[in-house]
Hints:
- The complex is a heterotrimer of chains A (278), B (588) and C (324).
- In chain A, 31% of the residues lie in helices and 24% in strands.
- Chain A is of the alpha/beta class and 278 residues long.
- In chain A, α3 crosses α4, α3 runs parallel beside α6 and α6 packs parallel to α7.
- The longest helix of chain A is centred in the last third of the chain and has 14 residues.
- Chain A starts with 30 loop residues before the first strand and ends in a 5-residue tail after the last helix.
- Chain B folds into two domains: 193 residues, no CATH class; 232 residues, Orthogonal Bundle (MetI-like fold), CATH 1.10.3720.10.
- In chain B, α4 packs across α5, α6 runs parallel beside α8 and α8 runs antiparallel to α9.
- The longest helix of chain B is centred in the C-terminal third of the chain and has 36 residues.
Amino acid sequence: MSNTTSDDSLITTEVQADSNDDRAPVNEAGTAVAARDLNVYYGDEQAINDVTMEIPEKRVTALIGPSGCGKSTFLRTINRMNDMIDICRVEGDVEFGGKNVYDADVDPVALRRKIGMVFQKPNPFPKSIRDNVAYGLKIQGFDGDVDARVEESLKGAALWDEVKDQLHSSGLELSGGQQQRLCIARAIAPDPEVILMDEPTSALDPVAASKIEDLIDDLAEEYTVIIVTHNMQQAARISDRTAVFLTGGELVEYDDTAKIFEDPEQQRVEDYITGKFG
Amino acid sequence: MATDNANADGFGEVSRVRGIAFEYLSLGASVFGLVALGVLLVYVAIDAFDLSNASPEWLLTYFVTLVVPFLAFCLYSADDPAVTRRALGALGGGLVAVAVVFTAIESLLVPIPRLNWQLAYLFVVAAPVAAYLTYVGSNGRPGAVGFGLLGRLVGGAALGLAVGTLFLVFDSLVWFLAYTLGVLPAVGLYAYGRVREASRARTAALPVGFLGLVAAVVLRDVIPTYPSDLLIYLWTIAVPIAVAGGLVVADRRGRTVAAVAAGLPLAVATAGGFWATGAGLPAPTVLLVLVTTGVPTAVYVSRVVDVGEGVVGLALPFLIAGGVVVGALVVEAWGVPAPDPWLDAGFVTEAPSRTPANAGLYPAIVGSVIIIALVAVLSFLLGVGTSVFLEEYTPGTGPIGTLTRILQVNIANLAAVPSVVYGLLGLGLFANLLGLGIGTAVTAALTLSLLILPITIISAQEAIRSVPDDLRRGSDAMGATRWQTTKNVVLPEAMPGILTGTILALGRAIGETAPLIMIGAATTVFNPPSSLFSRFSAMPMQIYTWAGFPQADFRYGVVAAGVITLLIILVGMNGTAILLRNRAERGS
Amino acid sequence: MTDSTESPDLSRQSGLTRLKEGTYGGLFAACAAITLLTTAAIFVTLLSDAVVFFRATPIPEFLTGTNWSPNPAGGGQAFGIVPLLIGTITVTVTAAFISLPIGTLTAIYLSEYATPNARSILKPLLEILAGVPTVVYGYFALVYITPALKATLFPEMSTFNALSASIMVGIMTIPMVSSISEDAMSAVPDELRQAGYGLGATKFEVSTGIVVPASISGIASSYILAVSRAIGETMIVVVAMGAQARMPAVREAAFGIPFINPADVLLESGMTITVAMVQITGGDLTGGTLPYNSMFALGLALFVVTLVMNVISDIIAERYREEY
Lengths: 278, 588, 324
């Protein structure tokens, strides 16, 4: 594992999954995103191998697995960010709200306006905090009260109290953890349905990371959150469902988080979870 | 290779003589060109300012009243005893060294023409020390303030003169109508839209502005009477600049201060304009120069006073002006012989002449300014458009990827085409085939734009490439279209780099002569161009012409003055570009 | 939030938005197309007039003729490029004697010896040499270099001469050699240097014996570019070299071996291809005359030569990039 955060080293201890009892059981939720027979190739190399899975609505779904297992690729297939890579080729369906996003009549730009994304490294624009959050509203031609929405989003990202007096200073002046929460505020401002998070805490210190984790838990009240993480404890703590990818882009096991961490079906998954390989 | 003489006492030694000799040889080679250029520049400066006729007393006077206070200011700003020791040591030691060496060479070897040891000291010791201290001093707070103020004064004056020059060619009445009917309503709508978050007002701004421009062109000959030029400039340029300056100040310091900071320079400029009408000076130019220097200066001063650091630096312009005045008084009172410089006010404000003493560069300067303004607009738009296409709009693979590579190779090859060939293109295509006219400003501008386009594109590409990909992906993931990402994220980040590259390329364009000769630019014109289609001359053209005159006064005096003028403008442009780049690097 | 049962609207955006996107893309593509059009326009413009010229003056005659007088006072118009080639080659070769060794040494100093601080000061300063307007260099050559050379080394030198012009062309092209060569030398991996030091080589031996050979293709490509720049240089030679298309006198050395005294070429006035073009512009510029057409023939020759050299330099540079 390459990106280890401090609490990542406790691999050998038994990981206890937090069952998130405050939310209704997963099987009562609808499906937000579904993949069917999904294969993704970079040139000749296969990055995703025949993945089929359904991701529940308004829940946190974690994608875990060793480096290069295809979990980030899978995440980027959902909002078609892989379109930016020339050699990337996608086969199979990814359904969002029942619609295959790879259908010919789907505009990736329109798709991305409905799906927010948070990256590994905080990437606020070199603009003011307000303009960062208002960015999505601006490009979508939002006609309502921008400042109210900015405030709402910053509150949603648990950042409002820290920045409310400096909305017009640059987003780059914030600390790393604040920048990442600013990016989350930016992502939720246009009110997307799904938020994709690509290892959002791996570039942050443990304190900042734990703030983001708390935030993710809150976000699941309103949004479907799909998070890629290297950090198994994190997956166990915050997610309702966990998908384990292993080398070659294969989805090995996908189940309730508690099940995956306490009693996985597959020996390979257990080996990975307990740190015997990966 | 190593000599194998290792013995029981040690490993022996490998001779380094050859290596050391080589190191110094290569160091010498590195500075050879620079030293050669430096010597030539010293001579051309001596010729342009007639310094060989300056008496030692004259030099001493200005050294004491102008140079010494300036150096003292820099030392005060640097506030570093080590720098002070070093500078004084260099000035003092240099004085002795130059005097001794110079005298020795003169008496033992050859007399050095048109140079005495005082001048040599000035150029070899005092000038480098002053440059070094300027650099060190500008890092201190008072120095930064002083040079910032000086820069705004000089830059503002240059801008005002340039804008005034452009109105020699462009119809000020059309501009008056276009501003009143198009620009002003459009800006108003846009500002209203911004403040009230009314996107419809913002969308309407562009069409309204366009309609206004069309109306302006149509109404130009319909409307019978117009206000005087002075009022037009006051209304269309001076007031907007003052308002913009006022808004900047109001953001930080409240309305009263803003009103003073904007109103005072505006009032001074207006008064100056009306005074100039009476005094027989070109009133619009006086007004413009006063506004473009006054408003930025006032804004800057208000900010410095607000911050409260290095306020002393604001005295620097007075120090320099005072030094010049005191120096002139002392020279007058003392009665020492003063040089009669070729490069003086008359040189840059008068037309060429057969007699060297009356020769001036004014029409050529105007021609250069107009051409460069056109080239700036054309090459900036084309350069940004092309580089955005190559960097943001084309994938690296597939048929379009191949096309991109072809474009890239083609641009690199265009950069290597001799400028004289571009001149032929201009002559054959623009002047003759398209009928834009031989030797007209518009033909020249088009030709020079194509000439510097490859340089502009390559530097703009570098600037765009340096924008981190993280930001692009962030914007894409928000559902921004390609144009939205380009406009909102990529271009704002890349703009300082693009501007720097464009200004450097314009520096190349302003000195180009061969293409101008090929398209038939006039060797000498006595009046500045009155339209884009009139014959014009440009600074390098005029230098070329004068260099061919047989009289020594032209060769050694007038041309030298022209060369120095051209080089000063070049240094100013490149200095602006470097400042821009440094500021952007510090910002990010 | 929409309910999961109704699918969200992901279809393509409104016509207006797409039109806007397409318009911007088209505008940028049009800008890029202008660069291609420029090349095409140069070719067509040069070729169309050159063809007219070559119909009147057959190519063999043009290439072997030893007399260039496009606008003679008393008849006898002749278009022989040989004297112009002699002028161009003289300037190019002499300038190369200055720019190539000095540029290479500069590159070695910057890449191997200079401290980072010294390099950061020297590199931009050297670029100034290429930024000074060439007409200014020409003026320097005419009024400062020539009199200085005349007073010291060559009293018999004429006011307009090839030597002063060549010196200035050489100085102007130093940064072209030094910057590209330095890039090539800096790209030499440090392991190679370490290997040399490990064998007990001195810094001098590493610089000249390892770094220079390893970056030889980059150096060669910089040489070609500098020479190509010298060939196309106009203003320096126009101002300082004069405009006399001359064939140098062929002398006879011992045993009747013919030779050309370099002084006859270097210290006298001469004419390069570029000067010939500039000189013709003094006459008719509206077209339709043979001298006008000849200008484009010369331009075509110049364009093709510099283009070929640039392509060769590119190919060489491309090869060295693949090596590491």
